[in-house]
């Protein structure tokens, strides 16, 4: 089994990177793995930690219409160059954490994706150099308020709600070149999305090079590489499971968003 690198919060509240063992214990690292973190003698038992998103990116850069059939299902032409947008770090959430359905939207979609984790600062890279900047891979759900996306000329709000970027559950260093990506809803045996990552229009290393020529990528940053055809709407209570060969599966349930109580300061204004 490939090494599975995780980020966890201990029962005492401390954050750690570590290596997930077969018995679900986590052997702790002394630094993030892309910062040359080394294994320590410390371990956390399964009941002593909470799994977080496997990295805390300074930014999440996503790619639209990177599978031809997905572009076609949305009625769009194939892009001549990568179509980029960003999701804020506050959209990132963990495996098994809720996806909150915002009251501003009447149509929220799942989008299963392969996510690339950057391991080294990348600026003005060519493709060969870009390959060395990819530290590993995880799974993402590019959750989208589709009605808002169609209403607005830019996608920041539609793509950027809190909890709209589930990541995880862990990072692996390598995956098969033609790994299958599949998305499942609830208990259905048949996937609603199913494609090979080899079907991407622009490869992960091309994307890293292309993005780095405009935006410096930092260690721990994440690139979402696009979703295949089969995107669809979710409703409250739906469970979304995204599986990628060589990584595992990312699962989240859709919950209503409950408005946080006003702070004391706001209440006094």
From TrEMBL:
DNA-binding as UniProt keyword: no
InterPro entries xref list: Fumarylacetoacetase-like_C, Fumarylacetoacetase_C_sf, Rv2993c-like_N
Short name of one Pfam family: Rv2993c-like_N
Residue ranges of domain Rv2993c-like N-terminal in the record: 4-54
GO annotation, biological process: carboxylic acid metabolic process
GO terms, molecular function: acetylpyruvate hydrolase activity; isomerase activity; metal ion binding
Keyword Protein biosynthesis part of the UniProt annotation: no
Domain Fumarylacetoacetase-like C-terminal: 59-254
Keywords: Metal-binding
Name recorded for this polypeptide: 2-keto-4-pentenoate hydratase/2-oxohepta-3-ene-1,7-dioic acid hydratase (Catechol pathway)
Protein's organism: Phormidesmis priestleyi Ana
């Amino acid at each position: 089994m490939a090494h599975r690198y995780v980020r966890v919060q201990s029962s005492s509240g401390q954050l750690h990177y570590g290596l997930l063992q077969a018995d679900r214990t986590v052997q702790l690292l002394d630094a993030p793995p892309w910062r040359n973190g080394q294994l320590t003698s410390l371990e956390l038992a399964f009941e002593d930690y909470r799994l977080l998103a496997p990295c805390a990116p300074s930014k999440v850069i996503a790619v639209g219409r990177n599978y031809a059939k997905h572009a076609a299902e949305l009625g769009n032409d194939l892009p001549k160059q990568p179509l980029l947008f960003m999701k804020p770090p506050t959209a990132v959430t963990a495996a098994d954490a809720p996806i909150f359905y915002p009251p501003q939207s009447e149509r929220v979609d799942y989008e299963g994706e392969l996510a690339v984790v950057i391991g080294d600062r990348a600026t003005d890279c060519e493709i060969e150099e870009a390959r060395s900047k990819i530290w590993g891979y995880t799974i993402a759900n590019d959750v989208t308020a589709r009605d808002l996306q169609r209403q607005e000329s830019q996608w920041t709000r539609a793509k950027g709600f809190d909890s709209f970027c589930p990541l995880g559950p862990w990072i692996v260093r390598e995956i098969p070149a033609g790994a299958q990506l599949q998305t499942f809803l609830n208990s259905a045996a048949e996937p609603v999305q199913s494609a090979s990552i080899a079907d991407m229009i622009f490869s992960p290393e091309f994307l890293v090079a292309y993005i780095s020529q405009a935006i410096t990528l930092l260690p721990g940053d994440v690139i979402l590489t696009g979703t295949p055809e089969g995107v669809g709407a979710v409703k409250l209570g739906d469970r979304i499971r995204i599986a990628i060969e060589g990584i595992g599966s990312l699962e989240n349930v859709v919950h209503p968003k409950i408005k946080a109580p006003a702070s004391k300061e706001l209440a006094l204004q």
